[in-house]
Design goal:
By secondary structure, the chain is mainly alpha-helical. It has a single domain, classed as MetI-like fold (Orthogonal Bundle), CATH 1.10.3720. The chain is globular and about 75 Å long. The N and C termini lie far apart (51 Å).
């Protein structure tokens, strides 16, 4: 006698089919709204690959040693900008997140308001912040630093607050019962319990900012992004491709280093 398919499996199948149908419908609607034609994309695919093979390949380095030094210096500037902005943002985020966690904050009713402000700031991309700051600060690493600092601050406020929500309330309540002040509860209850989580989110934010700093740099935030954009504007695509490869190597190395550190913290 053949086995009947369980009702749960049939329900899951209908759910997947409905989900796939919704995705297809959304794709069609978005295609119509944006007037994007996938057929045209495939028809012009040959032009795209010929542009890459002829204008970008093979990668080249500038003939002058000073320009090579400038590229390497801009890479170091990008890394320094990402690390420094994340560090400043991390310190500020820790202080603010103490008031964003309902279980830790001395003013629990204000925690939701603090989170709402952080969510609003986080939902504005670093690229948009860079455009906003460009008119007041001008071109340079100052724009990139502030833009990355704002987005990192908002992200880590939420991340740190969520980490603190996982603290055992028994620890906080026992410290309150002994008459500990708010700074003492933070020093002896919050920091020892959450330091691993704080550092893990901090390292993750550095990974994100290494990539974001390149994009921010292309709109005037300094670093390797600004150098890359200058070569692209000058139609020096072979050199630009070398810089792109250098950026890829930089991101891979930083991701590998921070990933190793984060795995060590999780043990």
């Amino acid at each position: 006698m053949p086995k009947r398919i369980p009702l749960l499996a049939q329900a899951e199948k209908r759910t997947y089919e409905a989900f796939f149908l919704v995705v297809v419908v959304l794709f069609v609607i978005c295609t119509l709204l944006t007037q994007f034609n996938p057929v045209v994309l495939f028809q012009n695919g040959e032009n795209f690959w010929s542009f890459l093979s002829q204008d970008f390949f093979p990668p080249e380095l500038p003939s002058k040693a000073s320009k090579i030094t400038n590229i390497l210096s801009s890479v170091l500037t990008t890394i320094a900008m990402a690390i420094s902005s994340t560090t400043v943002a991390g310190i500020l985020a820790f202080l603010v997140s103490l008031f964003a966690s309902e279980s830790v904050s001395p003013f629990p009713r204000a925690a939701k308001a603090v989170r709402a402000v952080a969510t609003f700031m986080r939902n504005i991309p670093a690229l948009v912040w860079a455009f906003i700051l460009f008119s007041s600060l001008g071109i340079g690493t100052g724009v990139g630093f502030v833009a990355l600092c704002i987005t990192s601050f908002a992200f880590m406020v939420r991340a740190f607050a969520e980490t603190m929500e996982d603290i055992s309330q028994d620890c906080i309540e026992s410290l309150q019962a002994t008459g500990s002040s708010f700074p003492q509860r933070v020093a002896h209850g919050v920091i020892p319990s959450c330091m691993g989580g704080f550092l893990s989110w901090f390292l993750y934010c550095i990974e994100v900012n290494i990539r974001a700093s390149t994009i921010v740099g292309m709109v005037g935030g300094g670093g390797v992004g600004l150098v890359l954009f200058s070569y692209i504007k000058g139609f020096q695509y072979h050199i630009a491709f070398s810089i792109i490869l250098l950026i890829a190597v930089m991101v891979i190395l930083v991701d590998a280093a921070t990933g190793t550190l984060r795995r060590g913290l999780d043990r």
